[in-house]
Amino acid sequence: DSDQPTKIVVMFGPPGSGKGTQARRLADELGYIQISTGDLLRSAVEAQSTLGLIAKATMEAGGLVSDDIVLALLKERLAEPDTQAGVIFDGYPRTVAQAKALDLLLKRSGQRVGKVVELKVNDDELVERITGRHTCADCGEGYHIRFKRPKLEGVCDVCGGTRFKRRADDTAETVRTRLSEYYEQTLPVLSYYVPKGAVSTLDGADSVDEVFADLMSVVSAKSRVDT
Ligand code: AP5
């Protein structure tokens, strides 16, 4: 039905551009699931699985984990039944090889990427966003030392928890490496999707609500390619 939003959305952009923030909100709004390969990898690291142990050092250094490892985790996640409703990809694909692998996986179930949404934010802002962010250690709610502080200092607004944590790769130095990886390896993925007519670019420097409003209008647009 061409009035329905596309079922497969890729949130695309540099580290800190708001992919995760927007992907979670969009998934809630549409009743889809969010698949973050960063989250899948962090869970594998925490569980000390074989793949996690291999990926850990690369992630902490800000490099890209090998396509094989990421694809193995992704296939496992995509095989779960809740993905049938629709999927918002967050942080995948990050190489052209990953984009091609995704096309093949989706093709098996008669699907394709309907929309790739690029979030543009300048590098200085990205570094500030990432080096200031932290999450509640109990419920995972995200905060930022400048942009989003808890209402009561040191207490999570959502669950009342008082322990906060930061990601191991959120240091100023590692962010610079992650940005270089993005420009060298990931940005070329956009050129793979542009000829398919799937890309929309949004100003990711706007407020979270403004970006979300723009996002809703591009995923609901009838001109998408999967109809
Ligand atoms: P991953 O977990 O994907 O991290 P990332 O791409 O570096 O992105 P981030 O999670 O840092 O940022 P985001 O764009 O989601 O922004 P967020 O919404 O959090 O990857 C981590 C690592 O895993 C990689 O380096 C790599 O090693 C590995 N990896 C993952 N996937 C891989 C793959 N496919 N292949 C190979 N390796 C892979 O927002 C950031 C901050 O800004 C938050 O504090 C937020 O509150 C704030 N914010 C968001 N939007 C706004 C706004 N509009 N205004 C003000 N503040 C905002």
From TrEMBL:
Keywords, ordered alphabetically: ATP-binding, Cytoplasm, Kinase, Metal-binding, Nucleotide biosynthesis, Nucleotide-binding, Transferase, Zinc
Sites where the protein binds AMP: 37, 42, 63-65, 91-94, 98, 167, 178
GO molecular function, one term: zinc ion binding
Compartment annotation: Cytoplasm
Single GO biological process annotation from the record: AMP salvage
GO CC aspect terms: cytoplasm
Residues annotated to bind ATP: 16-21, 133, 206
PROSITE patterns given in the database record: ADENYLATE_KINASE
Region named NMP: 36-65
Residues that hold Zn(2+) according to the record: 136, 139, 156, 159
Adenylate kinase active site lid domain ranges (all copies): 133-169
Job of this protein: Catalyzes the reversible transfer of the terminal phosphate group between ATP and AMP. Plays an important role in cellular energy homeostasis and in adenine nucleotide metabolism.
Free-text comment about domains: Consists of three domains, a large central CORE domain and two small peripheral domains, NMPbind and LID, which undergo movements during catalysis. The LID domain closes over the site of phosphoryl transfer upon ATP binding. Assembling and dissambling the active center during each catalytic cycle provides an effective means to prevent ATP hydrolysis. Some bacteria have evolved a zinc-coordinating structure that stabilizes the LID domain.
The protein, known as: Adenylate kinase
Native organism: Ruegeria meonggei
Gene: adk_2
